[in-house]
Amino acid sequence: GEDVEQSLFLSVREGDSSVINCTYTDSSSTYLYWYKQEPGAGLQLLTYIFSNMDMKQDQRLTVLLNKKDKHLSLRIADTQTGDSAIYFCAERYSGAGSYQLTFGKGTKLSVIP
Amino acid sequence: DAGVIQSPRHEVTEMGQEVTLRCKPISGHDYLFWYRQTMMRGLELLIYFNNNVPIDDSGMPEDRFSAKMPNASFSTLKIQPSEPRDSAVYFCASSAGREWAPLHFGNGTRLTVT
């Protein structure tokens, strides 16, 4: 079955870059997503990448995908205190009716002022 | 766009009571999902609907849990009877019916069963 793994915690200083890593097991994954969850709120979509892409950049966010190693990363440039949150990686695998997402357990990013 | 709306935001109830959680998806979205989030298990998919029809309910923990979607703009998740181990944050999400379409989440209902 499909599985998504993330490290649980990451701590960075304000102004530095953050890199959050994720590995997945299903080689037939078609789309991969990054969500952000702030305290008391739902999951907010940050960005997503198709499995036929290697990289996607959106302002301070850069997503890198290594299909061979089934490794996905999210880089946040110039990390701010407002970036402190839990970040979830999610995959959608191909298959009949596969409109659901499988989520990792989330990485809690703490930004030190 | 008001986003996915869930109610109530918080629910505190006693063991054995019935609990009903409500969700209004984004207008035009034809997929609706119910997730449960706990520290131990993370996000778990409970059930999802397509065009108001339940497609996969294999994540529903037990017969105490039931979900309905009587129309395109409303869904409920009911727990009867509730137990302390049901305490969690329950999220509703919706998406448009395209393969790449991401899920849009509500702010969740925090359920505490004492």
Question: Could you characterize the architecture of this molecule?
Answer:
- The complex is a heterodimer of chains A (113) and B (114).
- With 113 residues, chain A is mainly β.
- Chain A has no helices and 11 strands.
- Chain A starts with a strand and ends with a strand.
- Helices cover 0% and strands 54% of the residues of chain B.
- Chain B has no helices and 11 strands.
- In chain B, strand 7 and strand 8 form a beta hairpin.
- The N and C termini of chain B lie far apart (36 Å).
- The model of chain B has no long low-confidence stretch (mean pLDDT 94).
- Chains A and B meet through strand 4, strand 5 and strand 10 of A and strand 5, strand 9 and strand 10 of B.
Spell out the blueprint of helices and strands.
The complex is a heterodimer of chains A (about 110) and B (about 110).
Chain A: E1 4-6, E2 9-13, E3 18-24, E4 29-37, E5 43-50, E6 55-58, E7 61-66, E8 71-76, E9 85-93, E10 102-103, E11 107-112
Parallel strand pairs in A: 2-11
Antiparallel strand pairs in A: 1-3, 3-8, 4-5, 4-9, 6-7, 7-8, 9-10, 9-11
Chain B: E1 5-7, E2 10-13, E3 19-24, E4 31-38, E5 42-50, E6 53-56, E7 65-71, E8 74-79, E9 88-95, E10 104-105, E11 109-113
Parallel strand pairs in B: 2-11
Antiparallel strand pairs in B: 1-3, 3-8, 4-5, 4-9, 5-6, 7-8, 9-10, 9-11
List keywords for this structure.
heterodimer, A: 113 residues, mainly beta, five-stranded antiparallel sheet, 0% helix, B: 114 residues, seven-stranded mixed sheet, four-stranded antiparallel sheet, globular
**Average pLDDT of chain B, to the nearest integer?**
94
User: Averaging pLDDT over every residue of chain A, what do you get?
Assistant: 89
Low-confidence stretches of chain A: none
Largest sheet of chain B: 7 strands, mixed
Secondary structure class of chain A reads: mainly beta
Range of strand content of chain A: over 45%
Tell me the helix content of chain B: under 10%
Overall, the morphology of chain B is: globular
Beta-strand content of chain B: over 45%
Quaternary arrangement of the chains shown?
heterodimer
Structural class by SSE content of chain B: mainly beta
Alpha-carbon Rg of chain B, integer: 13 Å
How many strands of chain A? Answer: 11
Order of helix and strand elements from N to C terminus of chain B: EEEEEEEEEEE
User: Helical proportion of chain A?
Assistant: under 10%
SS field, number of helical segments of chain B = 0
Radius of gyration of chain A: 14 Å
Shape estimate of chain A = globular
Q: What's the end-to-end separation of chain A, in Å?
A: 41 Å
